[in-house]
């Protein structure tokens, strides 16, 4: 840590005292700003080029992203544990630029006619798979950069950066696509890598994963899954994240827009305002946990956020009052971010460094399952009605979460139980 640093003297910003963390955080912020622009611009391109099949093609794009996260997350975690993590990050960002250049060219020229969509799906799958390697590698690198003493603060600041940049990028993507063609907007987004690649190249930390290469990639993956299963605290945390993503999120997230417009009777503009309450809750939680990062090492805090989210989905599914739904939506955004920050921090403190990437790779796996879960949940909503499906999902979420929390004492423990001997200090190579 830099002696006498401005950030070192401020508890809520201590991780920023580390040079490499500032570089990594700035790169993460830029990526978090660009990703929504690229995804929504692809949607606008599909709507403009293929209006009669836009719903189908947009759904296929989302499915390609989800299936890539599902397929590559375990591989990505193993890669993060097999190789020097700084080099993996540089490779991933270089690959991201190359893939996005080809995607932009396809959108601008449409060389294969309507079959261009098929090529776009393949490239989108590869880009999402590359992201599934980048994410666990980035997370697994953080302890080596900031040390365990500032790890919780670093995770909170990373989450805050993502939550604060997304609301800024959403209005911009609409403005840019109103001024330019979608292909031009997508191509323009590649300028971000003029900053991202130099930032990653300037990193100096060393963090070599401890996976046994003699096992092979599949052997490394099996070892990581077996390690997670053997540790009841880590497996409990991962299981709760899976429950929230696969069972809890589809109600307010996947079916939420239809619920608000058809059941609550909101107009599109009113829905936009309602959606903002989720974002405000998420941003508030990011700032709160960055300032109070000790809470993120507490099993009690984690369990409270999990149960707050589950309870919120129940109120959301039964509410017909717009003001109440707005308050609950704010709480859902707050609770979800609190859950993810606490889960990431607790796992980082509990996991051994040689398994760090493989365990953290299970987080994008949960995201991939949630994306693929959208189709069957939507089908159930169409078959049985939203008024029946949303409450059923919500009560199931709460029941499953209570069962997991009750069976794992560490998930109800104060932060002191999670203060294991630090695995790494900043800059150390295992």
How many strands in all?
Answer: 0
Distance between the termini: 19 Å
According to CATH, what is the topology of the largest domain? Growth Hormone, Chain: A
The gross shape turns out to be globular
The CATH class designation of the largest domain is Mainly Alpha
Q: Give me the number of helical elements.
A: 17
Quickly give the structural class: mainly alpha
Work out the strand percent: under 5%
- Count of all domains: 2
Describe the biggest sheet? none
Q: What is the CATH superfamily classification of the largest domain?
A: MFS general substrate transporter like domains
CATH architecture term of the largest domain: Up-down Bundle
Helix content: over 70%
Order of helices and strands: HHHHHHHHHHHHHHHHH
Radius of gyration: 21 Å
User: Can you tell me the residue ranges where pLDDT is under 50 for at least 5 consecutive residues?
Assistant: 420-430
